């Protein structure tokens, strides 16, 4: 058993945790930072298992943390990638209405985008074909500031640039908080004492909050997003999204050309049977029991069971999934869709069943908890990291 002292201890080696460590090195040079990550490397969960999109911020309520951080974060992410030699591309994207009932929501998105300071262009059917010849729709928005990148590479570069000591394979098992310091013990027996603690544990963030003795007031309910690779990637030139349903914090099945040239199709959003349940075969009864004990889980089920049933149907039926794709890309067939690695979204749910839509950051003595950081957290990771770092430095001074 060893011990280690530092000024700020960050739990979680995803992009938000590593951005926080990087921001600390810029805001307070000389701050001793340690990052603990339970996996053997960085970005093994949400950061490394998404569509790789640099989001523009068009979807998010004006004035919200999501809107402010996404708009700022998109430009900062492009700059960071340029400075550090990380391959990326500003591609733009289409948001396409395929039914008349979606047109009012599309027009609302245009207004929201303009309020957020995002340049948008309205398109008719002929103009859609100019951008995407195989995509059909009644109307669309072109958002020019959207891009693509490999966030796993970004996370690796943040870890290097931060100067922090990043320790992998260290699962946090015990947290002891005193007036003068916070002590953490890991699965290997390592003890780390710090002046301030930052919880960026993603899928495990509520568990870590409880280990610290804090009631987070929410629970993480995991939703798995399943993807396919498009066998004929030339059918899609860039990024194509449906008009999202504002009742849900999910964007729907979309088409994303990745930085390597392939096209990702998905994701859906189905309840996962484990925090890190990347397939139906991964079942952890204790985690399921904990979710069912949370009142918000049952409130979600009552409120959104029809939506959930449709998502599960598309998960179990490739034909149904293909039909969802064909709404945007009529030429797609079942044979075009090849299974790709899934991701799991750490969705914060309140006791009354509210799906937390915005970023959720809460503070306790000597501690900062990041309790909800869904998409566009990767896009917005640099400004989020600065915000969390400022709060951690304030906790350290206090």
From TrEMBL:
InterPro entries: FAD-dep_OxRdtase, FAD/NAD-bd_sf
Family classification: Belongs to the L2HGDH family.
Keywords: FAD, Flavoprotein, Oxidoreductase
Domain FAD dependent oxidoreductase: 7-391
Pfam families xref list: DAO
Record-linked SUPFAM superfamilies: FAD/NAD(P)-binding domain (SSF51905)
NCBIfam families (alphabetical): PRK11728.1 (NF008726)
Cofactor(s) the record lists: FAD
GO cellular component: cytoplasm
Single GO MF annotation: (S)-2-hydroxyglutarate dehydrogenase activity
Protein name listed in UniProt: L-2-hydroxyglutarate oxidase
